[in-house]
Design a protein that fits this description.
two-stranded antiparallel ribbon; 18 helices; disordered C terminus
Length: about 450
């Protein structure tokens, strides 16, 4: 093993250890461990890619990973930005014009929209700016080992879910009367969304190179644990999002992994049947939330009522520019109609905030990115950001995800992966099919 490989190996281990420190610091509410975490991240100042795992994990739960009301991911984000800027300067990386142009356009548009919003708040604008800068700077990084980065993210997700499961075991005895949660201040839906994102990353481990039977068992077991945790939170949108995402990707790759899918399909069906059958036998109140009757009774937890009130209002008074960039404007508008929450839908939230102009602007950007991702979809590594984004988008049917950090971090990873797919890794479909159908 040469010096470069050895360094990469040790930094990878160090990166996963930072994720463990993050989890332990939050669970134990330890300022000492938080200080250790920030110092440890600062030591990676010249290696920004190894800050990514702990940043991605911390960004999944802004209300969970917080200290005195300040999001830990925000602090890590500033450290990551500084490290990326240093890499930009040291390596003299040329600025990609399209990324810079969209950065400027989004900055100007959201600034003006916030200034003329019904609340006059710039909170969402400030938070969004950090996400935008991260997207831009990560898209600038070059010569990144995607194989190594992917597996660091996967292992970090395994560690996070396992630590979560041990921490939650004391709360499970209370599930007969309430939904699984971290604390009264933490959103249950956000917790479920975080776990669904972790499962999305884990699932890619079955498709990218570098796996053996033991790793498959660990991944499968951890995914199962994650699904159970989501079910115990009682959050339907997160469960639907991760299951549908897995099904979509599986069906797409069925034509490539035909033999392997056929081999594992009976086992998956059997485990799924036994899993559902056993859950139906449990007398747990939260499971009733997943019945058709419960969904019909609460009308999507009141979301449909919000849509019926706010969408016509936007068509009437904010068709082109909405009521202002930021979720706080949607909340304020909803309160005027007696609702306690916003639209909880990606498309509707964007429309209420920014009107048709905002929808056209952002969806043009999303379309450009999606088109590039689809062109590279046959490369297994690109599945890491694809799964994150796909799960987030489907989850957006019933949750507000547009301004969430995990959504824009998924976009940042997408550009990072797209710009670091060397020709040697861009497999032809014939080569990919050949490798996929090799004996298990």
């Amino acid at each position: 093993m040469n010096m470069s490989k050895r360094k990469e190996k040790y930094l990878s281990i160090y990166s996963v250890i930072l994720v463990v420190v993050l989890m332990l610091a939050q669970i134990n509410e330890s300022t000492t461990l938080l200080s250790v975490l920030f110092v440890g991240i600062a030591l990676l100042f010249f290696n920004p890619v190894f800050i990514l795992p702990v940043f991605i994990i911390s960004s999944l739960g802004n209300t969970f990973f917080a200290y005195d009301g300040i999001s830990i991911s925000r602090i890590i984000g500033f450290l990551l930005i500084a490290a990326c800027l240093m890499a930009q300067i040291r390596n003299r990386i040329p600025i990609k014009k399209i990324g810079f142009i969209f950065l400027v356009i989004f900055f100007i548009y959201t600034l003006i929209s916030s200034a003329f919003s019904i609340t006059g708040s710039f909170v969402s604008f400030i938070v969004f700016m950090q996400s935008l800068v991260v997207v831009f700077l990560l898209s600038q990084l070059r010569n990144i080992n995607l194989h190594n980065l992917s597996w660091i993210l996967i292992i970090s997700s395994v560690v996070t879910i396992i630590i979560f499961s041990f921490w939650f075991k004391e709360n499970i005895i209370e599930l007969g009367i309430q939904r699984l949660s971290v604390s009264e201040d933490t959103s249950i839906n956000r917790l479920a969304t975080m776990i669904s994102q972790l499962i999305a990353i884990l699932f890619t481990g079955f498709l990218i190179p570098g796996k053996n039977k033991l790793i498959k068992i660990i991944l499968f077991s951890t995914i199962l644990i994650g699904l159970i945790l989501i079910i115990f939170t009682g959050t339907r949108s997160a469960l639907i999002a991760i299951i549908v995402s897995i099904v979509i990707i599986t069906l797409y790759f069925f034509k490539i992994y035909t033999k392997k899918v056929i081999i594992y399909l009976p086992l998956i069906i059997l485990v799924g049947y036994l899993f559902i059958n056993q859950f139906q036998e449990l007398d747990i109140h939260v499971l009733k939330r997943f019945t058709v009757e419960e969904v019909q009774d609460d009308a999507g937890s009141g979301r449909i009522g919000v849509w019926k009130a706010l969408v016509p209002k936007t068509f009437k008074d904010g068709l082109f520019f909405g009521f202002g960039f930021g979720a706080e404007n949607v909340y304020d508008l909803a309160k005027q109609y007696g609702f306690r929450f916003s639209a909880h839908n990606l498309l509707i939230d964007m429309f209420i905030q920014m009107g048709l102009t905002g929808l056209i602007l952002f969806f043009t950007y999303f379309f450009i990115l999606a088109k590039k991702l689809l062109k590279s979809i046959d490369n297994p590594y690109i599945l890491v950001p694809v799964m994150i984004l796909l799960t987030g988008l489907i989850n957006g049917i019933g949750e507000t995800v547009f301004l969430e950090k995990f959504f824009w971090n998924g976009i940042a990873l997408a550009w990072l992966y797209l710009n670091n797919l060397p020709n040697s890794l861009k497999m032809s479909k014939q080569t990919y099919i050949k490798e996929a159908n090799e004996p298990v």
